[in-house]
Automatic annotation (TrEMBL), chain B:
Record InterPro entries: ABC-2_transporter_component (IPR051449), ABC2_TM (IPR013525), ABC2_TM_bact-type (IPR047817), ABC_2_transport (IPR000412)
Provenance organism: Alloalcanivorax gelatiniphagus
Keyword Ion transport: no
Protein name per the record: Transport permease protein
Main location group: membrane
Gene3D superfamilies given in the database record: abc type-2 transporter like domain
Statement: the UniProt record of this protein carries the keyword Cell membrane: yes
Amino acid sequence: MTDQDAGPAILTRGLTRRFGDLVAVDHLDLSVPRGQVYGFLGPNGCGKSTTIRMLCGLLLPSEGDIQVLDLDIPRQAEALKQRIGYMTQSFSLYRDLSVRENLDFVARLFGLSRGRRRERLDQLFHTYRLGTLADQLAGTLSGGQRQRLALAAAVLNDPELLFLDEPTSAVDPQSRRDFWDVLFGLADGGTTLLVSTHYMDEAERCHRLAILQDGALVAEGSPARLKEEMRGVSLLVTTANPRRAQHALDDQEGVRSCAQIGATLRVLVDDEATLATVRQRVRDVDPDATVAVTDVNLEDVFVAATLGRPEHGEARS
Amino acid sequence: MIGFSVHRLWAVVTKELRQLKRDRLTYAMIVGIPIMQLLLFGYAINMDVRHLPAAVVDQAHSSRSRQVIDELHQSRVFDFLYAPATSSGAQTLLRNGDVKVIVVVPADFEHRLTTDQPPLQLIVDGSDQVVQQAARQLSQFPVRAYLRGQSLSPPSSPVAVAAYYNPRRQAPLNTVPGLIGVILTMTMVMFTAIALVREREHGNQEFLITTPLSSAELTLGKVLPFIGIGVIQTSLVLLLGHLIFQVPVRGPLLDLYLAALVFIVASLALGILISTVVRSQFQAMQAAIFTFLPQILLSGFMFPFEGMPRPAQWFAEILPLTHFVRLSRGIMLRGADLTSLWPELLALGVFSAVALGVAILRVNKRLD
């Protein structure tokens, strides 16, 4: 199989899924390179989970072609199951079984022999710091511990490709950071990871990102490149009254979005030309306000890609 | 990779047993339900009516009327709790539910004895069928003969009834064989449906589906432990029925277990079918009860099968419990064996096949 490693881990062409009248995934073309952490960024209901399910072969696509690890999905979905791991959005192991029993059960499903099971479990206990929790019921674990257990179960079969569907939604910041360290460790070992998230700081860490909206791909690339290529300018407004300033910018031509961050206002505008208008509007409210251009961040990219698509897309360029 | 693996099946079975061991409530119910029901039904279901609360209105006030009332009292069918002066007073008692029966001795009681007019009047609470039946029996009470000084033996009947298999009309004897079926229905259908839905509801299936585990392995693995539980329950009821109520097993014990096993499979099939229709554990429970009621009412367990209207009988033939009640009564009370009862076994087999077939069709559809 090593000679095929040149091809992408995931390749889709025109992938579409409809539920009745609703188009959950709309002609998605994806190419996920191997050995990277690939992020799926998008609001809830944008089709992230549906796409992941189709890629695993859990859900049949309405249209389009899927190739995962050079297998035709869904036709070869059974063969794929041995080679992928899937960490579901909600905890999907058994709360009334202990950590050891849960992992042992999964190991048996993958057909590991008794000796191999013990060996693999010891490894996982070590890597995921579960050793002291081995005989504790999964239902009594904390959010972070439970998540480590879920990840251990998902990687038990040494998958070449790991899907993680919003893995950190119920976890404190420190655990999230630790978790990402583990993910990068897996990527260094050659595993391809596809992570869906709606946290910007997590998206920032990915090698590459796909931003989805309403089931369609609206932006794709590395976080740095996405920021570079974003059309639009980020302004930082410092004012004593950010709320009134925000109100003054409502419906202003050229202003795409406005978000209050503490005592400042972050304003996304079409171009530098809009800066003067914004400054004037804001000073109408607060004469002491300052407006300055600031670095584009990933949130700006996300907002520009998802909000600005209809009016500010190809039609303007 | 594709196909059926005994190892994976066994992994599910042991996991399931482990969970069952930890689920104390279910565990207690599996053992508790049979014991509770056996005691409840064994002692409580008794169609011979005794001690009906009654009122007596004696308008004759003669020595003979008192004699008759006393004799009725002796029969223990009635407990005369009230003796209102007027029949309207008695009717109030009846309406309030204080009494089920009013015995009226009319003022011309002595005169009526010499004519064809009925000497006594019984007013009964017709809203209770059992009371109505008891009153009908009592209308045979030989008042005249008794007062003529004859002995109170029942009037000789033109037809002699000989009750084989249960000559003393002991209720537990009739109840226990069917009760095995009732208990198995309850636990097998409900627990399997719930156990299967739980996996889905808790999101376990979402993960399992990405492992090599097939849905056939999962379903079978989850259901197999229940066969063992069913056999344990059967043994428990048989043992307790024998110890407490002296219920015999006159036919071959092996045949009885075989019949129970086939019935367990039919009930599990029904539980699996339910699990493919419902979405939550709560719905599973409701659906199980929905199938449970007609089984208990129409199977012949509670009411005589022959007394039901034809369409109800046809419908009852679909229900697995109907056939199991016939099997268990046949083997335990009449000493029959499966060679003579094979049509019932066949019916259970057909039911299982159809239920499982529909379930498989539904599962394939859902994976779409």
